[in-house]
Write a structure and sequence with these properties.
The chain is mainly α. 74% of the residues lie in helices and 3% in strands. A two-stranded antiparallel sheet has the order 1-2. The longest helix is centred in the N-terminal third of the chain and has 33 residues. The two termini are 37 Å apart. This is Iron complex transport system permease protein. It is a multi-pass membrane protein.
């Protein structure tokens, strides 16, 4: 163990936790630098650093165009991963993520209804996406309660609801005006293309508040891993804590979806990959957040270079990787049943 002290406050880390955190942090920093260099024209790291401090001829390119995309990848990757980690923790199922349970599709349905019927403002889109996500999560939960909540039933019902909502979303797009349908179709894949500071100001504030909520709840959620009865005996209000955590997870998913469209795979895979990197017995929030940020950054860079100079939506890359991961995870889970 490594103990860090500052006055009366002390924090204990396992060696592997500290090393993994530093390694992922350095990897994220390297990807951020590459993301700021990458674009229609390649900028050297020295030019990027000069631009960040307000010097040189590339300030507008780096600060106005590329930096918002990189910040969005970091923040939204961490937010989606934390949403997935909380849902997997509460459901005690590695397949329990917003992608699989239809929360992404529900958020997209809410946003689509606003986008195709009224003038869509940032507040309205976020609110509609949140309403769609909450209603979807509630429907999946209530349908799974028959005869007691079962983790396999939860996933199966979630997949069914996701399929139904995907069909509904396709119907809405087909009924929409031509220009709106084209925009909605591109948005449905999940993309960071064209994001600016005006698009991110409100979502980043919401995500920051939700990340703070997860931080406050993290210790209590960890206590719940010792078992429900023991956790209640130590004074943990499990029902209240889990409801708050689930609502925060749904809000994270809805906020990201309202800005980028549904980005799959990150919420599903990042918690499990992070758990293996940190060799943690349970799904941890810090490993999930760091892994999610790195995964989305790396996927977005790959999306930019695969068909350069055309930048693919990042959701194309995450979906391709996520399909393979989901097949592996499903086969692994089915062996346990």
């Amino acid at each position: 163990m490594i103990v860090l002290r500052s006055g009366p406050v002390s924090v204990r880390f396992e060696h592997r936790t500290l090393y993994a955190t530093v390694a992922l942090g350095l990897l994220a920093a390297a990807l951020v630098l590459v993301g700021l260099c990458q674009g229609a024209t390649w900028l050297s790291p020295a030019e990027v650093v000069d631009s960040l401090v307000g010097r040189g001829d590339s300030v507008r390119i780096v600060v106005t165009w590329r930096l918002p995309r990189v910040v969005a990848a970091l923040a939204f990757g961490a937010a989606l991963a934390l949403a997935g980690a909380v849902i997997q923790h509460v459901a005690r199922n590695p397949l329990g993520s917003p992608d699989v349970l239809g929360v992404d599709a529900g958020a997209y349905t809410g946003a689509l209804l606003v986008l195709t019927s009224t003038g869509a403002t940032s507040w309205l889109l976020t609110t509609a996406a949140l309403a769609g996500a909450v209603l979807t999560a509630a429907a999946v939960y209530l349908l799974s309660l028959r005869g007691g909540l079962d983790r396999v039933r939860l996933v199966v019902i979630g997949i069914a609801v996701n399929a139904i909502l995907t069909a509904v979303n396709n119907w809405i797009v087909l009924r929409a005006d031509h220009d709106v349908a084209i925009a909605a179709t591109g948005w449905s894949v999940g993309s960071l293309n064209g994001l600016g500071w005006d698009d991110l100001s409100l979502p980043l504030i919401i995500v920051a508040l939700l990340l703070t909520t997860f931080t406050v709840l993290s210790r209590t959620l960890n206590q719940a891993t010792i078992g429900d009865e023991l956790a209640v005996a130590t004074g943990v209000r499990l029902g209240q804590v889990r409801l708050t955590a689930m609502l925060a997870a749904v809000a994270c998913t809805a906020t990201v979806t309202a800005v980028t469209g549904p980005i799959v795979f990150i919420a599903l895979a990042a918690p499990q990959i992070g758990r293996r990197i940190f060799r943690s017995p349970t799904v941890g929030l810090l490993p999930a957040a760091l892994t999610g940020a790195v995964l989305l950054l790396a996927a977005d860079l790959l999306a930019q270079v695969l068909l350069a100079p055309v930048a693919l939506p990042v959701g194309v890359v995450t979906a391709a990787i996520g399909g393979c991961y989901l097949l592996w995870l499903l086969s692994k889970e089915m062996r346990k049943v």
